[in-house]
Amino acid sequence: MLVQKTDLPLVAMDFMNEVHLEDIEMLNTLNDKLIAYEAEPSPEAKEDVSDYCEKWYAHTISHFNGEEVEMQRTHFPPYIIHKNEHDNFLAIIRAEIDKFNQNANPIALQKFIALDVVPWLIQHIRTMDTVTAMFLKNGISPCCGNH
Fold first, then answer.
1. What's the angle, vertex CA 98, arms to CA 30 and CA 107, rounded to 5?
2. Structural domain includes residue 1
3. By CB count within 10 A, which of 55, 70, 89, 131 is most buried?
């Protein structure tokens, strides 16, 4: 298993914790598909990985959008900073998926997930999402005071 659910920090909003756990399940599944493709490369296995990458990417867009809607609804002061983090990371993910679709290199995508995606997700939860969840729950932000 690439990452354990217990590796994820929890935040003050359940909907965020739930989607983070879904992220981990998807990343572990994608990693398993990449291992299978590396062990037995075939057009079908590549297509399975590519299709799952698109499913994961769509899920990530939905994940980020769910947080952004709540940040806008509550007028979260550093909304644009948080959204920019999301947008930048989505662009990176898209580029890596496109690279895989062009070169079919499972090892490169596995490394990206293990060395970039998982650490980014954990760090993002510890920082941006923790502050955001506190604001959504209590109307208090350590960086901006009361709502």
1. 50
2. no
3. 131
DSSP conformational letter for 10:
P
pLDDT one-digit tens code per residue, 102-117:
999 999 999 999 999 9
Q: Is residue 76 part of a domain?
A: yes
User: How far apart (Å, rounded) are the C-alpha atoms in residues 74 and 83?
Assistant: 14
Number of domains in the chain: 1
User: For the chain, give me the number of helices (H) and strands (E)?
Assistant: 6, 2
Measured between alpha carbons, how far is 53 from 37 in angstroms, rounded to an integer? 13
- Among 125, 121, 113, 119, smallest CA distance to 29 is for 113
Position of tokens 């509550």?
74
Q: Which of 17-21, 34-38, 101-105, 142-146 has the lowest mean pLDDT?
A: 142-146
Residue 7 lies in a domain: no
Tokens read off for 76: 């979260």
Is pTM, for the whole model, over 0.90? yes
